[in-house]
Amino acid sequence: MFLYSDTNKRYHTLDYEMKRIFGEKVYKVPLDAGFTCPNLDGRVAYGGCTYCSGRGSGDFAPSSLLSITEQYEASRAVYLAKKPGVKCIPYFQAHTNTYAPLSVLKAHFEKALTLPDAVGLAIATRADCLEEDVVAYLRELHERTFLTVELGLQTVHDKTAVRINRGHDYETFLRGYEKLAGLRRVIHLIDYLPGESVDMMLTSAKEVSKLAPYGVKLHLLYVTEGTAMAEEYRCGEVYIPTREEYVSTVVSQLEVLSPEIVIARLTGDAPRETLIAPKWSRNKIAVLNEIDKEMVKRSTYQGAFV
After folding, report:
1. Is 306 part of any domain?
2. Integer CA distances (angstroms), 163 to 1, 74, 229, 232, in order
3. What b/e string do you get for 220-247 counting C-beta neighbours within 10 Å, with b at 16 or more?
4. For residue 73, is it within any domain?
5. DSSP letters of 130-174?
6. For residue 2, is it within any domain?
7. Number of folded domains in the chain?
8. Which residues, in sequence order, are bridge partners of residue 8?
9. Looking at the whole model, is its pTM more than 0.85?
10. Res 236: pLDDT
């Protein structure tokens, strides 16, 4: 049995980690605080990442017109219907959640910590949006609560970063990552970005493993209406893998990721009404099941080749 598992999983799941720390399943509650991004407002670029929707990856969070409390209660109600008193982690997901004055950040984050049954805080941001006063505050939060800081890297390949209008290179990411040394850092990677081969994706996973983050999120690239990538896809400039190809790539990446790293996600999803491709991503459970099957078929596990 895989060391970091209490089920048949052969990778270090977030569910296992939460049960280890809190003694039970913990749900992340997505929130939209109404922030923007530096490659939207012109600080580094305009238009945002080519794959990003207008919600800035916060498509499943309630409207930012609602207060943080209202958003949290609306989403948490779904979990409460399954289990009264369920523990939750407020997750500031949409756009760049350290890209605002410290006073604004504090108002949102401190409020989140007072929400019912909140046992931590998750903050998604960019490595180029970590001012010194914000980093100092994140360190303070780390001492007070279970804090994870999620950094969108997406790829270690600068050529790809330029193509997707990421707005910073890998060296910039590394500088921001080091600023958060000692905190629980979670790195995001996106598979099958335009122009990337499987070898390139494996290189990204290997380089991330060397950084020894607390966690990694592997995302499936999906194309949604209203994005620059949607137009590229219609022009035949974006390759979308089959489910079998994606599963094979993810398993190969898991093999080169250290087993201590928490795998916080293995796919991605988009709202059905805006999803263009791949349609197979709608069945998230099937994708996860196929990953499990492929690992058994290969007789492999996370970190097998580390």
Report:
1. no
2. 41, 37, 10, 11
3. bbbbbeebebbebbeeeebebbebeebb
4. yes
5. --HHHHHHHHHHHHHSEEEEEEEEE-S-HHHHHHTT-SS-HHHHH
6. no
7. 1
8. none
9. yes
10. 96
User: How many Cα atoms sit within 13 Å of 8 on the Cβ side?
Assistant: 9
Of the candidates 195, 230, 282, the residue with the CA atom closest to the CA atom of residue 54: 230
DSSP single-letter state for residue 217: E
Contacts 24+ apart (CB under 8 A), 231-237: 232/50, 232/194, 233/276, 233/277, 237/194
CA–CA separation, 210 vs 51, rounded Å? 27
Q: How does pLDDT run across 100-122, given as a tens digit for each residue?
A: 999 999 999 999 999 999 999 99
Kindly report the CATH number assigned to the domain that includes residue 242: 3.20.20.70
| Structure letter (DSSP) for residue 90 | E
The DSSP call for residue 17 is H
Would you say 48 and 176 are in contact if contact means Cβ atoms under 8 Å apart? no
Q: Is residue 211 part of a domain?
A: yes
Cα–Cα distance for residue pair 165/176, rounded to 1 Å: 18
**Rounded CA gap, 80 and 73, in Å?**
10
Nearest of 265, 255, 245, 268 to residue 295 by alpha carbon: 255
pLDDT digits (tens, 9 = 90+) for 15-72: 999 999 999 999 999 999 999 999 999 999 888 999 988 765 656 678 888 999 999 9
Residue 207 belongs to domain spanning: 14-298
